[in-house]
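User: Please predict structures.

Assistant: First:
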Amino acid sequence: MSKPWILGLTGGIGSGKSAVAQCFIDLGVHAVDADHAARWVVEPGRPALTQIAEHFGDDVLLADGNLNRAELRKRIFQNESERRWLEALLHPLIGREISDNLARAESPYAILVSPLLVESGQHRLAQRILVVDAPEALQVQRTILRDSTSAEQVEAILKVQASREERLRHAHDILVNDRDLDWLHSEVSRLHRFYLTLRGGQT
């Protein structure tokens, strides 16, 4: 059997990446979520968590020894150099975790779901890129509802993520996710049928 090719799936916060990924998973496509890999590399007992605690102090740990994500997020969004330090530590570890997981795929193509596909350089792991896009006002509205967060925090996250233009520049395919779930399912099915005709992700 030929090795599955990799589809990179990305989009800004609140664009609906997770819903799109789930549609592909329901169709039998192997998917690896970079966010899950990112969580796994900082679990208690893993070297990365120890280094983070040494660098930022014990405030970034919860009482049970897990990472206090809210506290860490606050620190790095206020400080560019701290964010870069954290990325330099975690990106190579996350990259290895993702590659190992993608290598286990048995579907004709596999999906790497990553909000920072472009920024982190993870797009280099993929042969094709699908960008889930949505109007910014809708992204903010969805994220506030989902995370019970403030519009200011969502705006701060949007600023850190690649600009829409930058993401779209890397896209082979664009899915504008501004309608209902039934429509989304039919769009993903259409893309899936197309992807099954590709060899190595290219037409």
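Second:
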Amino acid sequence: MNELAFAVVGTSTIADSMVDMIHQCSCARYRGSMSRDAARAASTTERLGGTTPYTSIEEVCRDAAVDAVYIASPNALHVDQALACIRAGKHVLVEKPLAPNERLACLVFDEAAAHGVVALEAMRSVHDPAYETLRAAVERIGRVRRASLRFGKYSSRYDEVLAGRQTNIFDARMASGSLMDIGVYCVAAMVHLFGAPEDISCTPVLIADAENEATGGVIDGAGTILARYPDKVVELSYSKISQDLLPCQIEGELGTVTYGGVSVPSRASVRLRGQAVRGAWTAEAQSTGDETEDLALAACDNNMCYELDNFCACVAGEMDAARYRDITLASLAIMDEARRQAGIVFPADR
């Protein structure tokens, strides 16, 4: 596999984490970072061991030494930056969500196909082998009837909202909010495990209305999506304004799989049900002879390594990127409908 020279768009902590993985990957090499602030671009590139800082996406596109671009800018900028790189013949690995909506994601994928390059969403959970271990465990618990996938952590940026100040993480103009920033992990995991549902209903927790200038209009801080399948129901819970301490759970007729961390799976187990107890409403026990087994998940300090490895494999023609494209598009279609029900509108939707 040939080594890919990467330019990185953005100077956030997530961008630093990807550069760390690039340095550890035999198929990738870090060239430099882009920031509109020339001093920041230069200092970040030097700090991270690169050679060439950039102050615009045009500079990145003109650099013939760049093979691939990792885009970790605000959500609303992803599509324009990805299209510019694609049209310059660069492969693109775009932070989640790849686009504000399904329509624009289709445009990115279509342009990538037309220009013979790879476009991939950097959705870490979809590439983490831990989900293959979970999938194998799910096959042991019989027909799945219910699942609860959840992710909630309090964002310090919410303090800015409470103070009436603008922050990109809670701004409709930036195609952000709780669903797009953190709920997307739950949606992608559901699609990865079960495929797309027949329909969904979304109950959001809105933290701003259409008149709020600081947030660019209606925006969510938390929410729940109920996804209906022919034989099961899946609950997705997400929040950036509170902490969720419960594990994810997948319930089958023969047992239950639990695990922590929908984006970085950990502490997983499968409990196979024994004999059901009649009249269990009078006692704590619901069944006897249950068997619980801890699941061995691949240990990894930073599971962004898996999406990087798969991206390089797709560029080398060793892996088909279509399966990941389909998950991205199905996930965005779900989120488009959830936002429609919540009344959350981005400029890109118009």
